From TrEMBL:
Residues 1-111 form the FAD-binding PCMH-type domain. GO terms for molecular function: D-arabinono-1,4-lactone oxidase activity; FAD binding; L-gulonolactone oxidase activity. This is L-gulonolactone oxidase. Belongs to the oxygen-dependent FAD-linked oxidoreductase family. It comes from Papaver nudicaule. Pathway: Cofactor biosynthesis; L-ascorbate biosynthesis. SUPFAM superfamilies: FAD-binding/transporter-associated domain-like (SSF56176). Gene3D superfamilies: 3.30.465.10, 3.30.70.2520. It catalyses: L-gulono-1,4-lactone + O2 = L-ascorbate + H2O2 + H(+). One of its GO terms (biological process) is L-ascorbic acid biosynthetic process. Its EC number is 1.1.3.8. One of its GO terms (cellular component) is membrane. Transmembrane segments: none annotated. It comes from the Eukaryota.
Length: 448
């Protein structure tokens, strides 16, 4: 009940080959063009609090890694680890700073079926529901549309159909995205009708959606065929060839004990500036996925909920972005007010400020790094900064730095005062420091 693969194998191929043998990887990310080495090294995950959880690295039971060595050892050393090895807690989520992962052995399960139903509900009690939903359903997740005050609750459980997921966000396209149009207009109204009528990406036979499916695990956890296999006339929606998406992705994990308060803060902010959240709904709202506490030194330490927030970003770092201050405040609420942990493979610089201090086993990880790569061959200035080895920190203070999330500003020049963006406190989290557009007069709220 294991599979051994090389580090560069794609998730799509891993799922397919396991299924041919009647086996399944219990949890995985949504996008199947990730490599196995990349997934485990950045803490990639699905949504599950059951079993061994949703982190892919928590299904690693064996690993081969090549690390630097002395000239007497030929400058390289192959280390073979299993779950009994004391270094496995560091190596299975390493950020790439320990060496080259050559092979990975993953624990599998017999192929099983899942039943998925998506229920659309009002978000009035979302703060309470989100705190418990992950414990009620094996693979439950929630997508929140704050502007419409709706939430899509994915009731996803094992069952004893032949459904298929092909997430709309990973479909290929031949046209530009809609975000630029939203930035240029005063009408921030968007609709989830496309998602509803298309079954949210699910089909019952690979073509049609006739009702929420029951299907085998290999057909439901990840997708991306329209995008990954696109021809010359179409491609992934974020590809520059089609003037595609250019966006920031804030992805922060909070302990379940803090989820209710965070959601309530965001709802309060939404009630003050509702239009600021409309643009999120072009990017599939706020995706909420459950993560079980991991024994990896750099993994989430307790059962948690991750909030994924994608939003449009201009090609020009200093360009005007509508309601920038509101989404920046949401980010600071998550990271600073509630001590959220950023996804290692996502986020802007400010999400990583003092991040290593949030991990109780950081010192143990750094001890392994010192033994495996004392000269820092596999480290960079960035990894040294986020691991606390470079005392300069991750913040970059310069003109306009706050517009790109590179710094928490202390003066207006860190925004873009010539464009009307100046430093202001947050509306709900007053300790936040955000770049607010004082030329906006359609909000119905105070500028300060």
């Amino acid at each position: 009940m294991t599979v051994t693969v090389e580090s560069g194998v794609l998730l799509r191929d891993l799922i397919a080959q396991a299924a041919k043998a009647g086996m399944a990887l219990p949890s995985s990310p949504d996008w199947w063009a990730l490599t196995v080495g990349g997934m485990i090294s950045t803490g990639s995950h699905g949504s599950s609090l059951s079993g061994d959880g949703s982190y892919v690295h928590d299904y690693v039971v064996g690993l081969r890694i090549v690390t630097p060595a002395s000239s007497d050892e030929g400058y390289a050393k192959v280390r073979v680890l299993d779950n009994n090895h004391p270094d496995m807690k560091a190596v299975k989520l390493s950020l790439g700073v320990l060496g080259v992962i050559a092979q990975v052995t993953l624990k599998l399960e017999p192929l099983y079926r899942r039943s998925i139903t998506i229920v659309r509900k009002n978000d009035s009690d979302l703060a309470t529901v989100a705190s418990t939903f992950g414990n009620e359903h094996a693979f439950g997740e929630i997508t929140w549309y704050p502007y419409h005050r709706k939430a899509l609750c994915r009731i996803d459980n094992r069952v004893s159909g032949n459904g298929l997921i092909d997430f709309i966000g990973f479909h290929s396209t031949s046209t530009p995205t809609l975000e630029e149009n939203l930035e240029e207009t005063d009408d921030a109204t968007v609709t989830t009708l496309e998602l509803t009528t298309s079954g949210y990406g699910f089909t019952n036979d690979g073509n049609l959606f006739t009702g929420f499916p029951v299907g085998y695990q290999n057909r439901l956890p990840a997708s991306g065929s329209h995008c990954l296999d696109a021809q010359t006339t179409t491609t992934c929606t974020w590809h520059p060839r089609v003037e595609g998406k250019f966006y920031h992705l804030t992805s922060v994990t909070l302990p379940l004990s803090k989820v209710k308060s965070f959601i309530q803060d965001v709802q309060n902010l939404r009630d003050i500036v509702p239009q600021a959240f409309a643009g999120l709904e072009l990017e599939n709202g706020i995706l909420m996925r459950y993560i079980k506490g991991s024994n990896a030194y750099l993994g989430t330490q307790e059962d948690s909920l991750e909030f994924d927030i994608s939003y449009n970003r201009d090609e020009n770092a200093l360009a005007h972005r509508r309601f920038q201050d509101v989404l920046d405040e949401v980010e600071q609420i998550a990271v600073f007010r509630y001590g959220g942990i950023p996804h290692w493979g996502k986020n802007r610089n400010i999400g990583f400020i003092n991040v290593i201090d949030k991990y109780r086993h950081a010192r143990e990880f750094l001890k392994v790094r010192e033994r495996y790569d004392p000269a820092g061959v596999f480290s960079s200035k960035w990894t040294d900064q986020i691991l606390g080895l470079d005392q300069s920190g991750v913040a970059i203070t310069k003109e306009g730095c706050a517009m790109e999330g590179l710094c928490i500003f202390s003066e207006d020049i860190h925004c873009a005062p010539e464009e009307g963006f100046v430093c202001r406190p947050g509306r709900v989290y007053t300790d936040a420091r955000v770049c607010r557009d004082t030329t906006e007069k359609d909000l119905g709220v105070s500028d300060i």
